[in-house]
Each structure stands twice: as structure tokens, then as C-alpha cells.
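Working notes for the structural subgroup meeting. M.R. asked for a predicted model of this chain before we commit to crystallization trials. I am recording the input and output together here so anyone reviewing the notebook later can reproduce the run.

Input as submitted:
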Amino acid sequence: MASENITICPVCNHDTFSPYNSAKDYTVSGEVFTLIQCSACQFIITSPRPAKNSIARYYLSDDYISHSGKSKTLFDKIYLTARKFTLKWKHQLIADHSTHAQAILDYGCGTGEFLKHMKNRGWQIEGVEPAANARTKANEQLGNAVSETLQTVKLQSFNIITLWHVLEHIHDLNDTIQHLKHLLAKDGKMIIAVPNPKSHDSQNYQNNWAGYDVPRHLWHFTQSTMDALLKKNGLKIVETRPMKLDSYYVCLLSEGYNNLKQHKLISGIKALIEGTLSNRKAKKSKEYSSLTYIAKSA
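Returned structure, recorded in C-alpha cell form:
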């Protein structure tokens, strides 16, 4: 496996790091990966990690449901049920930032359910999905509206660009943000959802927190490092919203990682309690399990 070490922080260009944590890949390989933290801006990074040309095998699992779309386990059924509610929530968020249906690009669109939802509501859609299996499934239901790379996107201007739990997967962080910014219409908005390693559930589960999802998650964004990264790329955060349902799904996965022999019913009950507690604590701290950042050109 080709691997890479991060020696320069992509947020602040600092070159000194300290150990932060380690986490296990429970989805595919069973390998343990190291997390490091920039000594200057505190950005958390998976390093060493698979290089861009060798990470694909870490997505080859039916358990990686955003690519497979299959529903086999209790976790999958909960994920798919929550997704129905989340699609409505996403549409409302976009409606709050766009006066009418226009052009939308979903970067890392998976099997295309979100784009299908938006298309049915009058939006002109395009997607980008590097994973071949997921892209094929998306194009089957979207009429070949999904490309493999940003370079092959048909439209050159979008009113809304979304990255739903995608930015943490991207190797070429700054280059990708710059390319997306170039595709953003004059008054357009970029919407970025990512896990939050400062949430209560992250602190509770520590290295068994499912939000780390190593090695697929290359970067781990706090509010301060996301703000700094977007400013570096000429973007300004205009609003931050929580994704409250995420805490329950993340806690459900984390419970399974925390105790592999625990009965699924017990895991479900404990996840419900922990997810509720995480959201309750975040009312004061604003550190929800997942956060959605709405940004525009500065």
C-alpha cells in the first residue's frame, strides 16, 4: 500500500506536529491509524495514511453504506430512515439561502439520493463522485448527471455547492476548495458538513469515536480550523448549523466499536442516551457531533 505522511499543515503551513490520538478502521481493514495535531493551529490530521492512488480499497465494503446504498443491518436501516428526514432538512437549509430553484452541484454525491431529491424540486443538478460503483448507481437514477471529477463537470456556475461529509475525505484540500470556489456563482453559497472532534460524543468515545472513520477521514475539523481553512481560500462562514440526527448514528456505531460483544439492543439504548446527552450539552457549547458550515466568497 502506498502511504503518505503530512509534513506541512494545509491550514497554516506550519511544519511541527504533536501526537493527538489513534483510531482503528472498524469498517474494512482493522488497521490502526495515527492522528496528529498541528502545533500552531491545532488542525487534526490522519498521518500516515493511504495515498490518493491506494485509498480506494478502504471503501470496498457494503458497510460503507453511502457508497453501497444497501440496507442489511440495524445500523443501515437506522441510517436510511434518518436519511429521509435529513433530505428534507437539507432542502430547507438550501431554501433558506436561495430564493428559488437554480443550479446545484453535490460534490461527493455517493449514490445520488440528495440530488434526486433536489431534482424533484425543480433544481438543475450535477454531481461528482469518484467511486465507480456509487457513481454508476447515481447515474442510473439521475440520467448521467454525475461526473468522476470536477474537471468534467458540465456547468461552470452553481448557486449552491454542497459537500455532505465529504471534505474530510479529500486529499487535495486547498486545490479542491479553490476549484469549487471558482464554480460558485457570484452570490452563491458553499455548504460543508463535517464531523466535529470537539463534540461531547467524541470526548466520550475517544479513539472509538466513529466520527474519526480512519483512514477514509483524512482531516478532522474543529470550528476554528474550518474557519481558518475557508478564510485561507477566500471564503467566509455566514452561518453554522448542527446536524442533530448525526449524533445518534455516530453514537450507535461508536457503541459497537466500544464493546464488540455488546448486544445490539443495549448498544441502541446507550446510543440514544449518549446522542441525546451530546445534543443537550451542545446547546450551550455549540459543539454538536456534526456541524454544517454555510460559506460565501469573502
